[in-house]
Amino acid sequence: MKSMVMEVIKKRWSVRAYRPDPVPEEMLMEILEAARLAPSAHNDQPWHFIVVKDAGLRNALAEACRGQFFVAEAPIVIVGCADLRVARGHIGGFMDSYPVDLAIAMQQLMLVAAELGLGTCWIGAFSENRVKEILHLPPCVRPVAITPLGFPNEERQVRPRKPLSEITSLNVYGNPLK
Fold this sequence. Notes:
The protein is 36% helix and 13% strand. The chain has seven helices and three strands; from the N terminus they run ααβααβααβα. The protein is globular, with a radius of gyration of 17 Å.
């Protein structure tokens, strides 16, 4: 049996060139709905997604993303933020939940975008303070991830992946999975 989700996972890549064509509103809403439906610790849903369409703000965000100016080429930039008033602290006794919660939501958003023929690129390299300033985020809200969203203007670049044998173990670390 072939997984449809696996086909979408294989189709997704980090797009770094975008056409200026607008993203249809129905597509955007479906993509945001995928993020909304993501699981989170205790179902707290500590997220807020800022959809940036304004060209001036997109350019400012691209500059805040360490000069990754391709970010501003896309007609939309989505900033996934964590609301620290809602986020669960110290899951498992060692870390806050919001980085994991936002990563799951952003991945769901990116997979649906890929399924719809749109490109995204996970941007984690940015000045948090500058993004907070640009988007007028209150102190209790932190930007966690940014993605441009639009129609790709480049061919897919297939990047190598490690084989399963290098990244898996059976029962205990280092025991080969057979």
